[in-house]
Structure formats: structure tokens, C-alpha cells
Amino acid sequence: MATEFVFTPPPVVSIPVVGQTARFPVHRIYCVGRNYEDHAKEMGFTGREPPFFFMKPADAVVVVPAGETGSMAYPTLTKNLHHEIELVAAIGTGGKNIAAADALKHVFGYAVGLDMTRRDLQNDMKKQGRPWDIGKSFEQSAPIGPIVPAAAAGDVLNAEISLQVGGEDRQRSNVSKLIWNLAETIEHLSAAWELQPGDLIYTGTPEGVAAVVAGDTLVGEVKGLPALRVTIV
Ligand code: MN
Questions:
Q1: Gap from CA of 3 to ligand 1 centroid (Å)
Q2: Centroid of ligand 1 to alpha carbon of 7 (angstroms)
Q3: In a domain, 132, yes or no
Q4: How remote is the CA of residue 96 from the centroid of ligand 1, in Å?
Q5: Band of the pLDDT at 85, cuts 50, 70, 90?
Q6: Rounded to the nearest whole angstrom, what is the distance from the C-alpha of residue 1 to the centroid of ligand 1?
Q7: d(CA 80, CA 67)
Q8: Average of per-residue pLDDT values in the chain
Q9: How far is the CA of 193 from the centre of ligand 1 (A)?
């Protein structure tokens, strides 16, 4: 007998995969905090800290197909909505206590993502020692482009990463400057949570985070992946 629900369950959140019709179903979204040195500095921190993580709900993604411009509604409560351009790793096979040396075998593919942040609310929460959720984990806070299977993605772990707003550079760095590289991140994450197929890892943002307003168009790129275009409405 088919399972009955008291209301219609939400659809599975999924992301298109370049080169195939099957889509990538999203399980969880993990994000790494302060993972480029010059971004840690601009946020008032120095030195190599152990990696730390926060999450966004799976339905925070805004899926933007290749060649299209997505739209993100300017969120409530904030007057300081920040962009954070990030390389996203999409987990294809799960596991716990994954060693860094084995970690990249668990990656299905890569995408360009934005960790959109209500910075004023996040800063209030930091000051009070409270959780970041209201600053980080709101609806539409995780725009993402299509996933490129790892074998087709080129050397994204050593690729230029950039964000332009209105055609002007805001962020430009290289993924090789991650403090904790992807393999190390997976090792740490999988010690704390059992990774599952469908997990996304937003690996952190380089320096240059700043505010956007309604009407701005953001273009994020990691060389080797389709660009991510989003207009704030
Ligand atoms: Mn981030």
C-alpha cells in the first residue's frame, strides 16, 4: 500500500548534471567557515584554526541552469546582504571517518555556488555567541549552477575563482589557497557527520565579500565549470 501523507510532501530538491539527463538529488548542505586566509583576515581573524562548519537546509538552493540567469529575492530583516562565491563539491558516495587520502573518490562532481549571507544578522549572533542560522540558513541563500562530473571538471582544486557584480570584480582568488583543502575538509566533516550521497559542501569563500542590492547581477566563476549568474530582485 502506498504511503499516505497528511499533506503533499515537498519535491526532492535536485540539481542538473552537465552531460546527462539524470539530476543530482540534494541531501544536506554543509558549509566551511573562514577557509581562505585573506577572507579570515577581513572578518577579523588570523591564523589557521581547525575547520568549522555550518549547514543550510537543502531547499535553500536556487538552481540556475547553465546559460541562464537565476533570481534571488532580497531577503527579509537584513540591510547588508553579502555575496560569498564558493567552489561546491557534490558527494556521490557517503561514509564516515574518511581519510583525506581517499576523500576525493567520494566526490561526484563540482559546481559554482553562492553562500549568501545576512551579514548584519550573522554579526549580531556572533557578538552574542548565538547560532548563525538566521544569518546563513534562510530561503534562497544557496544559489548554485549545474554540477559537472569530477572527471569532466578539469583541475578545479587549483582553479581561479571569481565574482563580479555589475561587471566589476569583487572577489578573485584561486581555490588552491583554501586553508583546509577539499580532501582535508571531507576528513574533518566525515568525523563529525556520516556523509551521504547528495550532500553538498560549500568549501569557503575568498576575500572581497561585500553587499549587494536589488537589481544587482552577480556572475560567479570557477575555471572549468559553467558560470553562475544570479540577479537580486
Ligand atoms: Mn561561506
A1: 38
A2: 34
A3: yes
A4: 23
A5: very high
A6: 44
A7: 28
A8: 97
A9: 19
Looking only at the bridges linking them, the beta strands covering 69-72 and 228-232 are parallel
130's grid cell: 548565538
Q: Which are the contacts of 32, defined by CB distance < 8 A and separation ≥ 6?
A: 51, 52, 53, 180, 185, 201, 202, 203, 204
Please check whether residue 87 lies inside any domain of the structure.
Answer: yes
Ligand 1 centroid–CA 176 distance in Å is 16
Contacts of 214 (CB under 8 A, 6+ apart): 74, 232, 233
Residue type (1 letter), 43: M
* CATH code, 89: 3.90.850.10
Q: Which residues contact 82 (CB under 8 A, 6 or more apart)?
A: 116, 117, 118, 119, 209, 210, 211, 212
In a domain, 220, yes or no: yes
Do the domain assignments include residue 164?
yes
User: Is pTM beyond 0.90 here?
Assistant: yes
> In the numeric block, which cell numbers belong to residue 56?
543550510
